[in-house]
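User: Predict the structure for this protein chain, please.
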Amino acid sequence: MRDIDRDSITAAVMAACGPETTPRVRALLEGAVTHLHEYIREVQPTHAEWRTVIGFLTRAGAITTEERNEFVLASDVLGVSSLIDMVNSAPGATESSVLGPFHLRGAPDLPVGGDLIGDNSGSPVLVTGTVRDLEGRAIPGAVLEIWQTAANGLYSNQDPEQAAYNLRATQQTGADGRYAFTTIKPEPYSVPDDGPVGDLLQATGRKAWRPSHLHVIVEAPGFRSVVTE
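Assistant: Here is the predicted structure, written as structure tokens:
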């Protein structure tokens, strides 16, 4: 590239953007390109090292399916998902959490007080609470999406032995904003380690176990949705 060097290439990339580039797209792209180029100039990876990075992304794409997203897992493991949650959380509201790679839309409806245990083994627990706004007022008709692991530590879309929506439900709060259901205590588990993210964990000596938890998405008209655990 004539008249472009290691210092001017960043501006050259941004100058290639056409007039149809929206201000927000330009801001997002400029931030990403600037930081990525600064990283390259600082760390100076070899060609072989950068091929490893490209190989990681290629393998992540190859292993990603409707049921498993390796890019989401990478975002979680690298702390990016949590940081995005932090910068987008509303002050005073329930702190958001990562969506994770095992969420499925379309879980069956479960009435308030319903049973999610079914024929699952495990320690039974009662989960109950109230969805409220920032002033503490109950929100009727809020919709909760709930999902968790079974007794073997696997989600339904990981385990062919489980029904498609096992231990998953959609519940709408009553007039008092309350939700309630019985389920089993979720089991702790390790994130999938049979893909490129697993190789990264092994290379860095990390044991990525997650403690027992329930996933919940809460949505209501007029309110910002929240993903939490």
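Helices lie at 9-15, 23-43, 47-63, 70-77, 80-88, 196-203.
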